[in-house]
Design brief:
31 strands, Immunoglobulin-like, about 5% helix, 6-stranded mixed sheet, mainly beta, 7-stranded mixed sheet
Length: about 425
């Protein structure tokens, strides 16, 4: 049932020609860039749209019509995390398409069936080198507010393969990755991005956790925030100032800048002293220097916040046609992570429930390709939770997911912790004839 590392690293099928849609064609280009991180030059990757900015945005009702250019000196393949393309265009090595070789291009054409705060990234070590970018699909009401996208990342000057090779060795718990900085839109907190806002203005902040191995807690400080969507799916609005954000997840927050001033929006790294973030500020407001490290480590993510979430519009009520159970296992010495249990075989049109039991001593963020699901249970408690594509399963706990089998194909279910994925924490959901 587990997807092997070899299958993840090697693709076997060519990308078929896609239908031509009436849509505004766009380009997305993978390239190499030089960043200034902590006063030092660093080589990283980028994913730039036709305007030279990271990622892409689509108007309500548009279709995904994108030509991807690989200007790197190595092959790559992008997964559209949070979108639901046909399986041949999903970007999963070994399941959907061959990698795009250096200097080549590929066309992607598929419907955008719902608004989304999504992102593009490869399923490999290139993600650690910052090959990631936001993908926003707007709803008709989005034009009412100005918005800003924040992409969070963990960064190391060391080569990603060296970080991977060090796992399971040395002191600590075997998974303490030696990151040098944590970034929000490519900038550390001691030199943050300043986002100007007018007094009395409300902004929509779309926050994407594009890190490879770090969860965050978002702290809006003096600004009370209204959570309106998770993973791009609308939720019953929730007011708070602290929001957990597991690997691969996204948050849409509304923040009103009531009075002149500078307002840090901080992302505290889980289990670390490190922080990233941006500053919302009115014109002319003094911005105090912010420390990259907090006084205490960031808290560990648990299920408390997830239990408070409810979808704005749930999946249609029905009894499951199929109930499956899987188990997440792993260890750091030797470094190995797995998904076992029932074969994830479904049929088109079924309502499927999957009970995901985490047998490990740490939270496990899990992402399902090609679908959205509803969180319908945590432990023994049934609930009407959020619609998601990525959920954090607490240590020694079970989370139950409900989905409609409406996108036939073969789809990856995997850890969004990059190194656990590459070590084997992956399975395949397959549609039968």
């Amino acid at each position: 049932m587990s997807l092997t590392r070899r299958a993840l690293l090697a693709a076997t099928a060519a990308l078929p020609a896609a239908s031509v849609y009436a849509a505004t064609p766009r380009t997305l280009t993978a390239a190499t860039r030089t960043l200034d991180v902590l006063g030092k030059p660093a080589t990283a990757f980028s994913l730039l749209g036709p305007d030279g900015k990271p990622g892409l945005a689509f108007a309500p009702g548009e279709r995904f019509s994108v030509t991807f250019h690989n200007d790197l000196d190595e092959s790559t393949l992008l997964h559209w995390h949070g979108l639901t393309p046909p399986p041949a265009q999903d970007g999963t090595p070994g399941l959907s398409a061959a990698a795009i070789v250096a200097g080549e291009s590929a066309a992607y054409r598929f419907p955008l069936v719902r608004p989304a705060t999504a992102w593009a990234h490869p399923l490999g070590l290139q993600q650690q080198r910052l090959l990631a970018a936001p993908i926003v699909v707007h709803a008709p009401t989005d034009a009412m507010l100005r918005e800003h996208v924040v992409l969070l990342a963990d960064f190391a000057f060391a080569d990603a393969a060296e970080l991977q090779a060090a796992l399971g060795t040395g002191g600590g718990d075997g998974e303490a990755i030696a990151y040098d900085a944590f970034l929000a839109n490519d900038r550390s907190l001691d030199d943050p991005e300043i986002v100007l806002a007018a007094p009395g203005e409300t902004l929509r902040l779309r926050i994407v956790n594009a890190a490879s191995a770090t969860g965050f807690t978002i702290d809006t400080g003096a600004l009370q925030a209204r959570l309106v969507a998770v993973d791009g799916n609308a939720v019953v609005p929730l007011e708070a100032t602290r929001f957990p954000l597991a690997l691969g997840q996204r948050l849409d927050l509304l923040l009103r800048v009531a009075a002149p001033g500078a307002y840090p929006i901080v992302a505290a790294a889980e289990g670390r002293m490190d922080r990233a973030g941006i500053v919302l500020a009115t014109r002319g407001a003094p911005v105090a220097r912010l420390a990259r490290q907090a006084d205490r480590p960031g808290g560990f993510l648990d299920a408390g916040f997830e239990k408070r979430l409810a979808a704005d519009h749930r999946l249609p009520a029905m009894r499951p046609d199929r109930s499956l159970a899987i188990r997440l296992d792993g260890q750091t010495r030797p470094y190995a992570w797995t998904i076992s249990g029932d074969d994830l075989n479904v049929h088109a049109g079924e309502r499927v429930e999957i009970a995901v039991t985490n047998a490990t001593d740490r939270a496990q963020p899990i992402h399902l390709h090609g679908h959205i699901f509803e969180v319908v249970g945590i432990g023994e408690v049934r609930m009407a939770g959020a619609l998601r594509d990525t959920v954090s399963v607490p240590a020694r706990a079970t989370v139950t997911l409900a989905l409609d089998a409406d996108n036939p194909g073969e789809w990856l279910l995997h850890s969004t912790h990059l190194y656990r994925l590459l070590a084997g924490m992956a399975a395949i959901l397959r549609y039968g004839a």
